[in-house]
């Protein structure tokens, strides 16, 4: 059975269970079970290769002990074991090792939604068909896992946790992170930027075990919500991270902005902070200079603070962050003073469909010197389609023209074109720090002379009134007959 068919068959079993309601709960249920299988397969391999290693999970709770036998416990006995022993113990796991902290952090907010122990056994037996110590099977499942995260777009607002792979890959490609450079995503969701960054570094720079160790030790991530935190942690295990204890379950906005010290600053930030939402009451007091509860604004202020001098960032922000006034104006002035906002890539509305249909932008900036000019690149949907969609999403090759224009790490040789233009800081200041600057090379549609259009409109309105009067007359005559 293919990996895709296997997961589909597991979801079909879950749909029979009265306790699992909707795609988000099915995915949450699926992930904690896969997490236990993945970490147990890793534990077995590490016990074989390392004399001193032992699993942080108590022996009777290890997957191999209670789940591996297809004829093992089932029904109410299995349900009681999961609800009364497995979950309570793992939620309170006392071992201090990083791997134990990973297990505890995953189960702190996990739930067993299934009500039928018999159906749980069926799911467990299907999961046992995957050997996560097989590189091929793990890679196939890793690809499928990313598709599952993409499918979250159908699970209500859970889709906010997924950024299209092409967007994350492009941002990583242009920042070009290397092992040893501390990389942070302060709102990591399911870990898309992290996996893209690891893939990029492994392809280009990881040549020795020491390089891999250096890369892993330099990763940082934080996620506020339980489900994406669990998804991200499992995603890291699938990408050969043995101890993703650096994926923190926390809210980076809950700390006062000034409390972040120089020692906590990082070289690279890649992020798509949630936008369109509001933080809980009181969070704005942590940002006295930018008192707002709008999440995207607070994260931008935090990102500027967390970058080292010469640190660089790539951030997804909505159009509203570019043209907004008030606090947004003050924040943009701060960004342009503290950082060199060298490039804004403008994306069409359909890139994040279906769960967001607003214009978005990729902001690339470096901390330590003020902005002198901002280059803009307008990305357009390919001529072969009207818009991006779930069946025809944006792909990395769609951004190849922007990468070719970029000018390498030094951004040299950039020229204006029908897609590219630059704006000086003086012009931006004159505009009141409004960064929502349209493409000056894009010809506006010729709608005709305004006065002529007004005459035509009045004529059309008169025609409508005449038809309405005629219709009334016809109806009146019909009623009198």
Write the layout of secondary structure elements.
Blueprint (H helix, E strand, L loop, with lengths): L2 H13 L6 H28 L13 H4 L8 H17 L6 H10 L9 H11 L7 H17 L13 H11 L7 E3 L6 H13 L4 H9 L1 E5 L2 H13 L8 E3 L16 E6 L23 H12 E12 H5 L3 H12 E9 L12 E8 L5 E6 L21 H7 L13 E5 H6 L19 H31 L1
Parallel strand pairs: 1-2, 1-4, 2-3, 4-5, 6-8
Antiparallel strand pairs: 5-7, 6-7, 8-9
Task: Describe what this molecule looks like in 3D.
By secondary structure, the protein is an alpha/beta fold. The chain has two domains: 3-133, Up-down Bundle (Ferritin); 149-430, Vaccinia Virus protein VP39 (Rossmann fold, 3-Layer(aba) Sandwich), CATH 3.40.50. It has helices at residues 3-15, 22-49, 63-66, 75-91, 98-107, 117-127, 135-151, 165-175, 192-204, 209-217, 226-238, 295-306, 319-323, 327-338, 400-406, 425-430, 450-480, and strands at 183-185, 219-223, 247-249, 266-271, 307-318, 339-347, 360-367, 373-378, 420-424. It starts with a helix and ends with a helix.
Properties at a glance:
Ferritin, nine-stranded mixed beta sheet, 481 residues, single chain, alpha/beta, 9 strands, Rossmann fold, globular, 2 domains, 12% strand
By DSSP, the count of extended strands is 9
| Termini Cα gap | 75 Å
The main sheet comes to: 9 strands, mixed
Beta-strand percent range: 5-15%
Number of domains: 2
Structural class: alpha/beta
Question: What is this entry, summarized?
Answer:
This protein has 481 residues and is α/β, with parallel strands linked by helices. It has helices at residues 3-15, 22-49, 63-66, 75-91, 98-107, 117-127, 135-151, 165-175, 192-204, 209-217, 226-238, 295-306, 319-323, 327-338, 400-406, 425-430, 450-480, and strands spanning 183-185, 219-223, 247-249, 266-271, 307-318, 339-347, 360-367, 373-378, 420-424. The chain folds into two domains: 3-133, N6 adenine-specific DNA methyltransferase, N-terminal domain (Ferritin, Up-down Bundle); 149-430, Rossmann fold (3-Layer(aba) Sandwich), CATH 3.40.50.
């Amino acid at each position: 059975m293919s990996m895709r068919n296997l997961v589909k068959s597991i979801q079909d079993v879950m749909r029979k269970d009265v306790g699992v309601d909707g795609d988000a709960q099915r995915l949450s249920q699926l992930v904690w079970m896969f997490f236990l299988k993945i970490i147990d397969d890793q534990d077995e391999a590490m016990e074989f290769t390392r004399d001193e290693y032992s699993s942080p999970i108590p022996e009777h709770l290890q997957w191999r002990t209670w789940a591996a036998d297809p004829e093992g416990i089932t029904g109410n006995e299995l349900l009681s074991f999961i609800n009364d022993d497995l979950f309570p113990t793992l939620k309170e796991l006392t071992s201090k090792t990083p791997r134990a902290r990973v297990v505890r952090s995953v189960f702190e907010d996990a739930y067993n939604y299934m009500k039928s122990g018999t159906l749980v056994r069926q799911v467990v037996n299907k999961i046992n068909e995957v050997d996560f110590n097989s590189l091929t099977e793990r890679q196939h499942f890793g690809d499928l896992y990313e598709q599952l995260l993409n499918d979250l777009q159908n699970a209500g607002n859970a889709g906010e946790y997924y950024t299209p792979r092409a967007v994350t890959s492009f941002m990583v490609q242009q920042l070009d992170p290397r092992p040893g450079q501390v990389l942070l995503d302060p709102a990591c969701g399911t870990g898309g930027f992290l996996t893209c960054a690891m893939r990029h570094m492994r392809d280009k720079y990881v040549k020795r075990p020491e390089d891999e160790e250096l890369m892993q030790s330099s990763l940082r991530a934080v996620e506020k919500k339980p489900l994406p935190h669990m998804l991200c942690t499992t995603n890291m295990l699938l990408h050969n991270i043995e101890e993703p204890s650096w994926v923190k379950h926390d809210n980076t906005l809950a700390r006062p902005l000034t409390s972040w010290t120089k020692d906590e600053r990082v070289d690279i930030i890649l992020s798509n902070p949630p936008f369109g939402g509001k933080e809980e009451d009181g969070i704005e007091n942590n940002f006295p200079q930018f008192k707002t509860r709008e999440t995207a604004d607070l994260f931008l202020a935090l990102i500027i603070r967390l970058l080292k001098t010469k640190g660089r960032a790539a951030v997804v922000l909505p159009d509203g962050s570019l043209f907004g006034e008030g606090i947004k104006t003050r924040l943009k002035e701060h960004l342009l003073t503290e950082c060199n906002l060298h490039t804004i890539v403008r994306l069409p509305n359909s890139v994040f469909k279906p769960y967001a249909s607003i214009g978005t932008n990729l902001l690339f900036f470096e901390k330590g010197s003020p902005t002198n000019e901002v280059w803009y690149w307008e990305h357009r949907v390919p001529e072969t389609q009207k818009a991006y969609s779930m069946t025809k999403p944006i792909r990395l090759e769609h951004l190849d023209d922007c990468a070719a224009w970029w000018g390498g790490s030094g951004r040299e040789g950039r020229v204006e074109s029908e897609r590219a233009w630059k704006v000086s800081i003086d012009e931006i200041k004159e505009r009141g720090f409004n960064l929502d600057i349209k493409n000056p090379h894009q010809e506006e549609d010729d709608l005709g002379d305004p006065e002529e259009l007004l005459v035509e409109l009045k004529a059309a309105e008169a025609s409508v009134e005449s038809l309405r009067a005629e219709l009334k007359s016809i109806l009146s005559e019909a009623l009198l007959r």
